[in-house]
Amino acid sequence: VEDSPMSRDVPRALDLRAGFLLELGRDEQARETLERIVLEYEDYVMVDGVRDRLAELRAPREDVQEGEVP
Questions:
Q1: Nearest C-alpha neighbor of 46 from the set 10, 70, 2
Q2: How far apart are CA 31 and CA 21, in angstroms?
Q3: Nearest to 15 by CA among 6, 36, 56
Q4: What is the DSSP string of 14-57?
Q5: What pLDDT, in 10s, does the model give residues 12-51?
Q6: Is the distance from CB of 56 to CB of 34 less than 8 angstroms?
């Protein structure tokens, strides 16, 4: 990604990276990666899905009770 930032494959690579980060429980890093895609690669064919995933990360979790750590 850093070697070829203008490659058309960069947003897909970042999307995959965000998915792996989510699987590892690294939600903050995944959120930052998804935000980067939305800001820098708005023509990415899957940007709508990226926006949806980003919205899910930003939304409060309903299954967590007040005072509980998610």
A1: 10
A2: 9
A3: 36
A4: HHHHHHHHHHTT-HHHHHHHHHHHHHH-TT-TTHHHHHHHHHHH
A5: 999 999 999 999 999 999 999 999 999 999 999 999 999 9
A6: no
